[in-house]
Amino acid sequence: MESAAALAKELGRCNEVSDFYRRASELYRECGRSQPASDALAKGASALEEKAPEEAIKMYDEACSLLEEDGKEQMAFDLYRTAAALYVKLEKYSDAASFFLRLGTAADKCNAINSQCKAYLSAIIIYLYAHDFQQAQKCYNDCSEVQAFLNSDQNRCATKLLSAYEEGDAEEVKRIGQSSAFNHLDHVVIRLARKLPTGDLQAIKKDAAADDGEEALDDDDLT
C-alpha cells in the first residue's frame, strides 16, 4: 500500500496518495500496531504538504490521535511540531497555537517538562504574532497554573514579553524577541518571535490600563 502511495505521489494523484496511506494505516491498526499505523499517516501527510496542505493537516492530526489513544504521546512530539509549523505556513495561527498546547499536554503526561514549557511559550508567541494579546494573556494564565511552567525560564520570558506589551514598549518587545531565550524553540517560532511586535501596542496599553482601572474601582467598592 505504501509503495502504491509513493507511486501515486510521483504521478501527482493526491487523492490516491491519501487513500493508499490511509488504507495502509488501517491495516496496521487491524493488527494492533499503532506506531506503524501512525507512521503511515505521517508519511502521507508529509507527501501532501505542498499540494494538499489541508489534507496533510488532517492526517497529522489523526497520526497524533492514534499514538495518544495508545498512550504513546512521546512518539508524537515531532508530529505536533510539524503540524503546527504547517498551520503557521497557512497563516492559521490559532490552530498552530492549539497544536503546541496539545504538545504541552502530551509532554505533561510523559513528564517531559522542558518540552512542555517550550510548547506553552511557543503558543503564547504565536498568539502575540497574530495580534491576539488577550488570547496570549489567557494562554499564559492557564499555563501558569501548571507548576512546572510557573517555575520555568520559559514562564519568566513570557512574563517579561507580556509586560512589555502592556507597557506599549515596542523596543523592549524587540529586545526580548531577539534574545537568546528563544533559541531552543522550533525554528518556525523563533522566526515569529524575531518579528515581534506586531499589532497596535498602544491599543493594548490602553486596554491594560482600563482593566487596571476597573480592578481599582472594584477594590474601592464597599457597598
From TrEMBL:
One of its GO terms (cellular component) is vacuolar membrane. The keyword Membrane applies. The keyword Transferase does not apply. GO terms for biological process: intracellular protein transport; vesicle-mediated transport. It is a peripheral membrane protein. It is found in: Membrane. It comes from the Eukaryota. InterPro entries: NSF_attach (IPR000744), TPR-like_helical_dom_sf (IPR011990). Coiled coil: none annotated. Keywords: ER-Golgi transport, Membrane, Protein transport, Transport. PANTHER family: GAMMA-SOLUBLE NSF ATTACHMENT PROTEIN (PTHR13768:SF2), SOLUBLE NSF ATTACHMENT PROTEIN SNAP (PTHR13768). This is Gamma-soluble NSF attachment protein. It comes from Eleusine coracana subsp. coracana. The gene is gb14369.
